[in-house]
Each structure stands twice: as structure tokens, then as C-alpha cells.
Amino acid sequence: MNTPIAESMRAVVLTGHGGIDKLEYREAYPTPRPALGEVLIKVSACGINNTDINTRTAWYSADVTDGITVAGGNRGFAEFDTVDATWGGKPLEFPRIQGADVAGYIVAVGEGVSDSRIGERVITDGWLRDAKEPLNPEKATYLGSERDGGYAEYTTIPTENAHCVECDLSDVELASFNAAYATAENLLTKTRLTAGETILVTGASGGVGSAMIQLAKCRDARVIAVTTRTKFEELRRIGADACIDREESDFRSALRAAGENETVDVVGDVVGGRAFGAVIETLRLGGRYGTSGAIAGPQVSLNLRHLIYRDLEFHGATFLVPKVFADLIRYIEQGRLRPLVAKTFLLHELGIAQAEFIEKRHTGKFVMII
């Protein structure tokens, strides 16, 4: 250790799968220590993500077929299998500190890490890759899932996952980027969105959706946002060229009514559920579909003729290669991204924050101030 660090810290601990009552605020939880190749971060802020609720409720389990409703998100699900209750299909060890979107300062380093890193302001890449096979998703784990995360005063992480950021944004604003913007950048990278193309973005007012709008504009693409009518103007302000009401059943007709072409080059989907068929129908011949979420439900209906005879590409976008997060840092430091912080909460209010987050009335990100 390089500086005196308290033996205990404040933290919110997940004690098992289930409802919000499984989150316990502790005033004196053991402070972690950085191991070989790791850094210790004094957490300033930590963003909230869908994965926090998905993991707590065991939504990832194949036994759960519903989307995350307000009731399911608050109380959890009656039936699930703990064996596949996490994103990686493996049992979770409890207690666990969640939170992947860490912004803070390196205050100590483990063996093998230069002391010069102490004092750096950093944000975290939550993908913990295997040192020998960093591109192998089967050997990757995730911060706040297989390893304790940032809903605490301190957290440790491999040094390569703590990215120094030099910009004028606040710690709270920085904590709004990590997972959501990296997920969006990953989806756009996998679907190869380029200048002049048009992308349809579902769930456009959420963390990933609103990030996708901005990152697509960084590529000089045209963006059609799917959201509620009350959020149209908000999304136009961050770059959406046109908006479609998410309650529409025929997106092609809605595109035409909005003065757009009936088809798009790329779909960036975080919703799934009953709108899936209408979304797929908007893709042109040879179009690309990418998904990084299914908040409206994982069970969808696909007309295989659309996939086959339109020569469509389908991409799942979860695991990040290191380049994706490096590109995100570059955009942040260039000032090309606008942080969308909808609301902040204190650490002991995490349960309250999750309950409000599940209602999906906000645009952008909720951030915990630690």
C-alpha cells in the first residue's frame, strides 16, 4: 500500500437474487486491497445500469421469459435458475458489490504497477479480460458481477481497466459514460455504421440508446430514434434527425410519414419484445441488426424469410475488445459527447434509485454520488 487507507468503508452489498430488499447498506465493510497488477480507486461516482437490475433479479436466467417490468424489477422473479442467473451464465457469489460505471481517483497500487498512477482521475472499463487471451469472451468476467464494483467508497481493478481521462467534465458526468456509451460504441462498431448511412435506434431515451444517438452522429450517420412522444424534443437536441413513437405497430409507415425512406441500413436495438418484428422489417436488403439488450422481453418472433431473402446480418453486442473503450475515451477527451445525467443519488439511496430507474421515465443516466 502507498497511502494509509481505512480498514473499512461504506458500501451497498447485494446479498442474493431477488427484490430491492436484497441490497444492504453497510457502514463498515472491509476495504479491498490492490493485488498484483491492480489499482485501488477512491470512488467519486458510479452510474446505474440495467445490468444491475438484471443481475439482482436473476433476469438473465433462461427460466425468466418476461422483460424487466416495474413489478419484476422491484420484487424479482418467482422462478429462476441460479446456475445461469448472470450475464455469463454462471452462478454469482454473494455477497457482491455491484456497479460497473466507476469514476474516481487512484489512491494506491499493487505490486507491478508504477506509483506514478497514484492521483490519476480514471473511469473503468468493466470488462475484465484474460491476460493471455484478451479477445476470448469465454474467459472474461465483469466488474460488479464476478468482481466487486463501485457502489462503495473503494474498489480495485486491473491497472489496464482504469483509464485516465483528461477533460473538464465532473466526476458525476464521467460516471455516466462507462458501460452505456461503451455498449453503444461496441454495437456501432460491430454493425459497421458509416457516414451517410441511416440507423434506427430503439429505447432511444435510455442510457445506451441516447449514447448510440450521439456516437452515430460522430460517424456522420442519420439517426431515427424510437421513443415516447414526450421525449421527441429531448432526443432531437442530442442529434436525432427524426423520431418515431414506440407504440407504432408499423415502423415502415411511420418512417414514411416522418419524411424518411421506408428502410434503414442499421438497427441498434436494446428493446426486443413485441416490437422486434416491426424493427426487422425496416432493414434494407443487406441491412445489419445489432442488439445489446431486451428490456421489453427476450422472447421475440422472427420471420426467417426476412433474414434469408433480405440477406440480413445479426449481431449480438456484449463483450468489448479493448479498442472500443479506447475509442470512447478519445471521444470524451475531444469533447464530442454530451453527458446526460438525469438525476443523482447518495450511496445509501441505491434502492430508491433502482426503483425509480426501473420506471424508465427519465432520459439518460442515474448516477450515485459516493
Notes on the structure:
With 370 residues, the chain is of the alpha/beta class. The protein folds into 2 domains: 8-177 and 339-369, Quinone Oxidoreductase, Chain A, domain 1, CATH 3.90.180.10; 183-316, 3-Layer(aba) Sandwich (Rossmann fold), CATH 3.40.50. It is built from 11 helices and 17 strands. The chain has helices at residues 50-57, 70-75, 171-174, 178-191, 207-218, 232-237, 251-257, 276-280, 304-309, 322-333, 350-358, and strands at 8-14, 23-30, 38-47, 101-109, 121-124, 127-128, 141-142, 154-158, 162-164, 198-201, 222-227, 242-245, 264-269, 283-291, 313-316, 341-346, 365-369. The strands form 4 sheets. Strands 3, 4, 5, 8, 9, 16 and 17 form a 7-stranded mixed sheet that branches. Strands 12-11-10-13-14-15 form a 6-stranded parallel sheet, sandwiched between helices. The chain has a two-stranded antiparallel ribbon with strand order 1-2. The protein is globular and about 65 Å long.
